[in-house]
Amino acid sequence: MYCTRKINADYTWVGADCRRLALFEGVFGVPDGVSFNSYLLTDEKTVLFDTVDNAVRTTFRENVTHALAGRTPDYLVVHHMEPDHAAEMADMARLYPDMTILCSAAAKNMIAQFFDAELAARVTVVKEGDTLCTGRHTLRFIAAPMVHWPEVLMTYDETDKLLLSADAFGSFGALNGSLFADEVDFDRDVLDEARRYYANIVGKYGAQVQAVLQKAAGLDVQMLLPLHGHVWRRDLGYILGKYDLWSRYEPETQGVMIAYASVYGNTENAANILACRLAEQGIRVKMYDVSVTPSSYVVSDAFRYSHLVFAAPTYNGGVFITMDELLRDIASHGLQNRRFALLENGTWAPVTARQMAALIEPLKGWQQVGAPVTIRSAAHEAQMQAVEQLAAAISGDISGEKQ
Ligand code: FEO
Fold first, then answer.
1. Sequence-distant (≥ 6) Cβ neighbours of residue 218 within 8 angstroms
2. Dist. CA 52–CA 14, nearest whole Å
3. 52 C-beta closer than 6 A to ligand 1
4. Domain coordinates of the chain in residue numbers?
5. Domain 257-396 falls in which CATH fold?
6. For ligand 1, what atom is nearest to the CA of residue 228?
7. Taking all residues of the chain, what is their mean pLDDT, rounded to a whole number?
8. How far is it, in rounded angstroms, from Cα 247 to Cα 244?
9. Which CATH number fits domain 5-247: 3.60.15.10, 3.30.420.40, 3.30.390.80, 2.40.280.10?
10. How far is the CA of 29 from the centre of ligand 1 (A)?
11. Per the confidence metrics, is the pTM higher than 0.85?
12. pLDDT < 70: residue spans in the chain
């Protein structure tokens, strides 16, 4: 049975929610599910925009069949070849042998790689600025390389002023029936998952996101239709503003994220003491045990907070495993412009401050605040002064930023 939603007179959402997928892209937990969005334009010609992940193929097919109401798709526009959107394209192409596939030249190569040369031969390549008239609607294609793969296209509907924005402006989390962002309390209930999606999926490509935002600024966009998450038809400036901030690597929140790894709780205790001293000075603090919380959540808050503290013990002569993984993950996302502070623990060889710094200092615009705190096995009265000095240095730096 179909489960579609109308977007306006001619556009229908024919995607699907998935709440069974344990790991998105095989790595990111999605405890609130995820939506795979696909859209159908019914005009004199019909256009299907992207397909979906294999996980929701049955619902998708039922939705497309219902929305077509006996017609067949004249075009399939492939904005993005990642299989969470393109998995069903081969089956759709078999089902609708007269359907023309439109995509970028790079996507055509990927169709041959993911599927076969026969399917790639059905493609008509389109590029930036090309248009397609479907009757009442004129669609203009926009190149959006590296948002989030090199082949990505977006489509601007010049008639209805819609931007089909591929992965951009998406979010983790199932829609739960609420297709439009104004049908939920986005800031309270969805923003964290939108940020986690952005930081982990697209975060590395800030310059390319900025390029797309520049293109969007030149268009009269009244609706954003992403491949995951909610459709934006009101207050577009909210999500555009978040993307502008995130892609410039500017923090959203002046405050401190403390990420710690602790084998027996002694490093955790020192981190908690630092958190108390910061909170006493009115600083907002968020803490993560990086052995407990999956890295994607910590990476997301690294994008959010202005000041990051990393605390970890020495382990096998290096940085404790889970902290080492986190710092490499943050570095691989190219996060820029953060102030950081360090706390190390070692029973006989406290060397992690230097080693942690080596992992993050190459990042653009990162600057260390205060002297690293060293504890040996456990925090004692003797380390209190160093912790207080670090808290004061961080607090002073945040106060300076606010001015
Ligand atoms: Fe949702 Fe990059 O695919």
1. none
2. 9
3. no
4. 5-247, 257-396
5. Rossmann fold (3.40.50)
6. 1
7. 97
8. 5
9. 3.60.15.10
10. 15
11. yes
12. 401-403
